[in-house]
Amino acid sequence: MAEIPTAAISRLVTYLRILEQLETQDVSRTSSSDLAERAGVSAFQVRKDLAYFGRFGTRGMGYTVPVLKRELVRVLGLNQTWNVVIVGMGRLGQAIANYPGASDYQFQYAGLFDVSPSIVGQQIRNLTVRHMDDLKAFVAENKVDMGFLAVPPDRAQDAAQMLVDAGIRGILNFAPVVIQSSPEVGAQEISDEWRGVIVENVDFLAGMKRLAFYILNPHLKDAPLTEDTE
Ligand code: NAD
């Protein structure tokens, strides 16, 4: 498969959301120009993004909404169950655990972890918050695919290391720090246990800063990709 830009994957998620909306409105067909308009990109961009993964439409006929939706769900791996642990059950961790949207797809919270005696043992939704000391044994006994990291910034690297030591290969990091995959100072090589670990960062404060910049400099925002700019 050709190398695929991260932004293309983000746009696939957007296209999927649009297809879900179209489906709830009983719209059965769409086109690259319709998807493009709704996503705020060019039709060329839509075709290019989808072409990384195969041919989903019929030339001149556009796409069947449920078929394209099913294909995007498959491409994104959303047709399988993903078991998640949340590490750090403070304000953000609790908000995430209480937000019902994750279960629209097959993301399931399997375990909640913290270190604070005032939080460990609390019941949040149908789960009891466990102590971090129990993480490794929990992951050994339960299939866990991802860890969400919602600890204070100065605890994030150590908590990420505990996730990786427990065998978790995917981390969604909410802490505003760069998680190092070769934590020893000066190390060039990725340490063995970090090989193949994927870290995705989520940061709404970074979004606010980008927004402030683009409000002040609207002309610097990327122009939509067209065949001419390729
Ligand atoms: P908080 O202080 O309310 O909660 C942090 C929790 O982490 C506490 O319950 C604490 O006991 C626990 N904790 C500390 N060390 C731990 C460890 N080693 N293992 C497990 N749990 C541990 O903080 P918050 O407001 O929920 O913020 C959490 C993190 O999320 C911070 O890093 C914050 O900067 C970040 N944040 C990110 C976004 C975003 O958009 N990405 C938004 C808000 C907050």
Poorly predicted segments: none
Topology, number of strands: 10
Name the beta content range: 15-25%
Bound small molecules, by name, code or SMILES, are: nicotinamide-adenine-dinucleotide
What percentage of residues falls in helices of 4 or more residues? Answer: 25-40%
Could you tell me the radius of gyration in angstroms? 20 Å
Shape: globular
Q: Which sequence of strands runs across the widest sheet?
A: 7-4-3-8-9-10
H-E string: HEHHEHEHEEEEHEHEEH
Report the average pLDDT across residues.
91
Q: Regarding quaternary structure, how should these chains be classified?
A: single chain
Structural class: alpha/beta
Helix tally equals 8
Task: Quote the distance from N terminus to C terminus.
Answer: 20 Å
- Biggest sheet descriptor: 6 strands, parallel
Describe this structure in words.
The chain is of the alpha/beta class and 230 residues long. The protein is built from 8 helices and 10 strands. It has a 6-stranded parallel β-sheet with strand order 7-4-3-8-9-10, with helices on both faces. The mean pLDDT is 91. The chain binds nicotinamide-adenine-dinucleotide. Residues 87-93, 113-116, 119, 132, 150-153, 155, 158-159, 174-176, 202-204 line the site of nicotinamide-adenine-dinucleotide.
Please give a quick description of this structure:
This protein is α/β, with parallel strands linked by helices and 230 residues long.
